[in-house]
Amino acid sequence: MGVCVIGAGLSGLAAAYALRERGLDFVCLERSPGVGGIWRRPSAGEPGPAYQALHLNSAKQLTGFAAFPMSDEMPLYPRHSDVAAYLREFAEWAGLLPHIEFRTEVLSVRQDAYGVWTVVSRGAAGVETRRTFDQVVVASGHHNVPTMPNPLPPGAESFTGAMLHSMDFMDGRDFTGQRVVVVGMGASGVDIAADLSRHAARTVLSARRGLHVIPKQLHGVSVDLIAEAPWFTAKSLEEQREFVEQALEVARGRMSDYGLPEPDHRIFSSAVTISDEILSRIRHGAVLPKPGIASLEGSTVLFTDGSWTEADAIVFCTGFDWRFPFLPDGHPAGATGPVRLYRRVVAPELPGLLFLGLIRPVGSITRLVEAQAQWVARLLTGEAVLPAADVMRKEIGGHLAGIERRYGMSTGSSIQVDVGSYLRELREA
User: What are the beta bridge partners of residue 354?
Assistant: First the structure.
């Protein structure tokens, strides 16, 4: 019956490549017209978490697939269109396109009493198809459900401008001459604020809490190359923190020097934001930092420090949840509780259900997804064997206990991984 791979973005292509390399029978179902996931959407004009100003934050050496490196002509941090073209070239080179069914939406994935998985999908012509598989690999990403503040700021119903989520933002030029408030200091927030600052009449960045902003390079080396370097991974967490904190003190100084709130946590105790631009745009007066929004009144945005600004639009860069609506209720990778997957891949209670790419590393995700895919392929060929369900549950419990000590427990933190140690886990499995 073979394997069903859901999604033909980076994770889905990694899975397809690993399966094809071992001669395993599989089909990949992709609802869009082409490969590339979020990277192809801006050029295609499709809605999603990507936008026209999007570039890689990770170095091309670690973002390209190991067997098919990005070309020397590519910049170190390519634009979204370059990444999309690269992923298409990889799929062609690896012979994956004949295995991919485009414009095919997965409607339902269910397991019967015998462990067989039935996948119901709908193709471009609207015809539904039922197929059975031994295994299902979910590789459809985890940036598909925008999260807005709940509740919205007091007075939101009176705001006379536009309110949108970063999911609906495409190009800063759409706001030429407008006054825009960007809410949030994550990756999309700082990218969008920097983009807007070149077109909008006024760009304000509202940050409720402090986050660590890290430049793309430290000591002249891309930070994700540092994160995977043996000399860095050999350090303890405390030593890694001290190294990065000292480098940031030299390269950046304190966040409060830019009018931004100081983080209330040490580096690597929460997600970090990687950006070369935002602090420079603030220093040049192109972006005005402000604290959180206290209330809205007509076109006026009031901040918690008592200051205010007039605004024509507010862009909420307040993150994403994920949904796998085709899976049964209660599956272990839902967005309403901590993700409970063995080695962040395997669902112990649902044999044959596997997840790729449902992780958040500090650094490039590609090597980790490749390692996940290769481990899955070894499991399917019998080269690797899963332990008993109770052993898997114990590993999950230990992982989540460590997450809670370091980050505090939330759905998002439950998928955090460290590049070096996680790679070793997968390669030694």
Answer: 137, 346
**pLDDT given for residue 18 in this prediction:** 98
From residue 427, alpha-carbon distances to 90, 382, 398, 399, 412 in Å are 23, 15, 19, 18, 24
Task: Render pLDDT for 236-261 as a digit per residue (tens, 0 to 9).
Answer: 989 999 999 999 999 999 999 999 99
Give the orientation angle of helix 419-428 with respect to helix 366-381, to 10 degrees: 20
How far is Cα of residue 404 from the mean position of the Cα atoms in its chain?
Answer: 20
The pLDDT of residue 339 is 93
CA distances from 346 to 194, 267, 408 (A): 39, 29, 23
pLDDT tens sequence across 350-406? 999 999 999 998 778 999 999 999 999 999 999 999 999 999 999 999 999 999 998
Arithmetic mean of pLDDT, 135-146 = 90
Residue 408 burial by CB count (10 A; 0-12/13-18/19+): exposed, middle or buried? exposed
Residue 120, beta-bridge partner list: 108, 130
Model-level pTM greater than 0.90? yes
Say if CB 37 and CB 141 are below 8 A apart.
yes
CB atoms within 10 A of CB 66: 12
> Contact, 20 vs 94, CB < 8 A?
yes
- Other Cβ atoms less than 10 A from the Cβ of 160: the count is 12
Number of Cβ atoms within 10 Å of the Cβ of 23: 8
Phi-psi region of 37 (alpha: psi -120 to 50; beta: other; left: phi over 0): left
Residue 191 Cα distances to 183, 303, 429, angstroms: 12, 22, 38
Tell me if the bond preceding 151 is cis, omega within 30° of 0: yes
Residue 151 CA to residue 327 CA, distance in Å, equals 29
Structure token pair of residue 192: 């969008």
- Distance from C-alpha of 95 to C-alpha of 400, rounded to nearest angstrom: 38
Q: Helix %, strand %, coil % for the chain, to 5?
A: 35, 20, 45
Give bridge partners of residue 111 from the DSSP assignment. Answer: 117
Q: Is the pLDDT of residue 314 over 80?
A: yes
Q: Which of 320, 77, 74, 294 is nearest to 188 (CA)?
A: 320
Q: Is the backbone of residue 168 left (phi > 0), alpha (psi -120 to 50) or beta?
A: alpha
Fill in the DSSP letter of residue 254: -
**CA gap 359, 357 in Å, rounded:** 5
Residue that the structure tokens 């860069």 belong to: 317
CA distance 35 to 81: 12
